[in-house]
Amino acid sequence: MDQNKIDSLRAKDIPPRSHLIDGKAVPALDGNTMEILSPVDGGALTTVARGTAEDMDAAVSCARAAFEDRRWAGQPPAARKQILLKWAELIEANALELAVTGVRDNGTEIAMAYKAEPGSASGTIRYYAEALDKVYGEIAPTSSDVLGLIHKEPVGVIGAIIPWNFPMMIGAWKLGPALAMGNSVVLKPAETASLSLLRMAELALEAGLPPGVLNVVTGEGAVVGEAMGRSMDVDVLVFTGSGETGRRLMEYSAQSNLKRVYLELGGKSPNIVFADAPDLDEAAKVAAQGIFRNSGQVCVAGSRLLVEASIHDDFVAAVSKIAETMRVGDPLELETHIGAVNSERQLMQNLEFVQTAKVEGGEVVTGGERILTETGGYYMSPTIITGVTKQATLAQKEVFGPVLGVTAFDNDDEAIRLANSTVYGLAGGVWTSNLSRAHNMVRAVRTGVMHVNTYGGADGTVPLGGVGQSGNGHDKSLHALDKYVDLKTAWIKL
Predict the structure, then answer these.
(1) Is 299 a catalytic residue?
(2) 69-88 pLDDT, tens digit each
(3) What domains does the chain contain, in order, with CATH numbers?
(4) In what order do the strands lie in the sheet with 19-21?
(5) Which of 113, 171, 420, 490 keeps 20 to 30 A from 164, CA to CA?
């Protein structure tokens, strides 16, 4: 990446954006818009359409029409494959523009955003493009006078609600398998991160995706998100976000057409460090990156650091030293390690968690403050708090910010009890040179992803999903395809 190119893209005005429905830019039916504030400097960036329930209904109707006339589902797998591959190429060709637009919208540091957003999205789309013509039906083991065939068919209309932290990456996790299997999609981006997804959807049309197959409706979750959840014509709803919203979406499903709902929700992931870790310096470095990159706004962030008591003080000192050298600042500068918090509301919530932790007996070792207020943006120093008990708010509630809670443990059993002491189960990690201990921890910690002597970085070949109140269903890997197909049995008398 070149800083001059980044600065040139930063200087460009972003025109007001509308919905994308049936292949066309469409304003909200009532003409209303929402102002988008950049977390980089707090200034107005542009406006997007403030969708209504009627806007969502129109998008769903277009998606249904596109599915029923089979303009996409009826194309041979090889044809769908070529369009998706072209889409991936266009995302790559426009990667810097997409990344800079996204950073101006949501605050992720550009070095991370470039790889995690367009880089990841193009790879995901390509992965499912290559997979779609390799999905076979089955022949059942029946008696000789019967033929049992099991067909895999597209479900219909998919509703996808995408969060603000990595909109392109997570959007591609939904769009890739859904479109690969021949479904039509209506996508609802987060209010504070709509711009890169709108552009990405435009590139899909440029690649040859038929109009109406992918539609984007912007607006408030309480309005257009609810309309999607209550729609009688959305067959599957996929969502990444908070547990509170996930619960409401399940209620909307029950109150409407019993659509299938797949949820990737919060986490309070434990990162467990034993004294026999193969490289404690590396463990400290990765522990800091695992919570502070993107200002801690990562679903699988290792927000609970569990450290064996014999090394607790030295290890916390090592992580603190690394945290204090991480540069917080303008996310569009390549030297920045930690960018902006997504919104002022999120920043205030983060600071409230710090105050609560102090009241509950935690000690702030470093950070805990809003910084760079002169920029007008939303920045917070990386924060480490020790003395966090199992019952503490900081150990039980997801912050979704650059706040690391530290708890000491004495033995394996205590580490497991601490790791499993929340309602969440999205991710976790363990650092040890003991192979038996590593395998035991992988089995004993209730979580969807468990890292050993690393944290983060799992690619698209493996599934991501949680247990407990971290949700259900899986993104990534071939297993994600299961959410977007129906099984149909053909029972044929011979």
Answers:
(1) yes
(2) 999 999 999 999 999 999 99
(3) 3-265+471-491 (3.40.605.10), 270-459 (3.40.309.10)
(4) 24-26, 19-21, 214-216, 184-188, 157-161, 236-240, 260-264
(5) 420
